[in-house]
Write a structure and sequence with these properties.
With 286 residues, the protein is mostly helical. The chain has helices spanning 13-42, 47-55, 57-90, 96-108, 111-122, 129-134, 143-154, 156-169, 172-179, 184-213, 216-222, 232-241, 245-275, 281-285. 31% of the residues are buried.
Length: 286
């Protein structure tokens, strides 16, 4: 007599299908329909008007500034995230909990508040404003302020992806590598980095997406100078406020493309991370 294994799903079929239907409806309403609306509105004036909006000088300047801010913020957060995660996961020191709290600070502070803090520090009437003005150094309403605001709102992403991974791995492999004669840099490159590479890449993808899509903090410090200090999100806002809906949605489609690419990369990284089989530390060091 065959014994049937107990099912892990005990709910009746109508209940299961109802829950699935609610989840699908929620995804369609909150994700699929807005994306479809952006694309349809971007192409409402035809392909020529769509490309014309993207080729417009102010849109090109906003794209360059967005890429520049991301190109500076992501590597800076990459270095900080790896160093912070290494220190927190591998060592015990005074101020460790304070460092963790500071890493989480951008999650607790509104981006608008963080931008206002930079204005109070580096603005013309701020603490360092007179000295900066005397030396003709511009931070607020200029590219440096946008980069600083972007770095602040994005720096937890890489560190927070790496810390739990490094804590779970412990220090056994690094200690074994040191026993075999490996130096600090060699241990990091051949032992630590292969173990954290997928978490690191995952954090970089999320950090880049946030850097290119940030609005609140950048809006405060940018000054909204068209062609100079407007990033893509700010340029979309200006176009929409001017009732130029087709151009606004055309530029917004670039951010939509970024979101889709980020989602695809995120799914691919998660799949690779789950299939990855770590090599023994002895073979790695050799």
């Amino acid at each position: 007599m065959k014994h049937r294994l107990p099912s892990t799903v005990s709910e009746p079929a109508p209940v299961r299908w109802t829950l699935i239907g609610i989840a699908l409806a929620f995804v369609i309403i909150t994700l699929v329909l807005p994306l479809a609306l952006v694309l349809s509105q971007a192409l409402a004036g035809g392909v020529r008007e769509f490309w014309g909006a993207l080729a417009e000088p102010d849109a090109q300047a906003a794209l360059r500034l967005t890429l520049t801010a991301a190109a500076i913020a992501v590597p800076a957060n990459l270095v900080f995230g790896v160093c912070a995660a290494w220190s927190i996961a591998k060592f015990e020191f005074k101020g460790k909990q304070l460092l963790l709290t500071l890493i989480d600070l951008p999650f607790a502070v509104s981006p608008v508040i963080s931008g206002l803090i930079y204005v109070l520090l580096f603005g013309l009437q701020g603490w360092f404003g007179p000295w900066l003005a005397a030396h003709d150094i511009k931070i607020i309403f200029a590219v440096p302020g946008i980069v600083l605001a972007t770095v602040f709102v994005t720096f937890p992403f890489i560190a927070r992806e790496l810390i739990p991974v490094m804590q779970e791995q412990g220090t056994d492999e690094e200690e074994a590598a040191a026993t075999l004669g490996a130096g600090g840099w060699q241990t990091f490159v051949r032992v630590t980095l292969p173990n954290i590479k997928w978490a690191l890449l995952y954090g970089v993808v999320l950090c880049n997406a946030r850097a290119m899509g940030e609005f609140g903090a950048v809006s405060v410090v940018s000054g909204h100078i068209r062609g100079m200090t407007n990033t893509l999100p700010l340029h979309v806002e200006i176009l929409y406020n001017e009732y130029n809906a087709v151009a606004a949605f055309s530029v917004a489609s670039l951010l939509m493309l970024l979101a889709i690419v980020t989602l695809v990369l995120k799914t691919w990284i998660e799949g690779r991370a789950h299939r990855q089989v770590g090599a023994p530390v002895m073979e790695t060091v050799r």
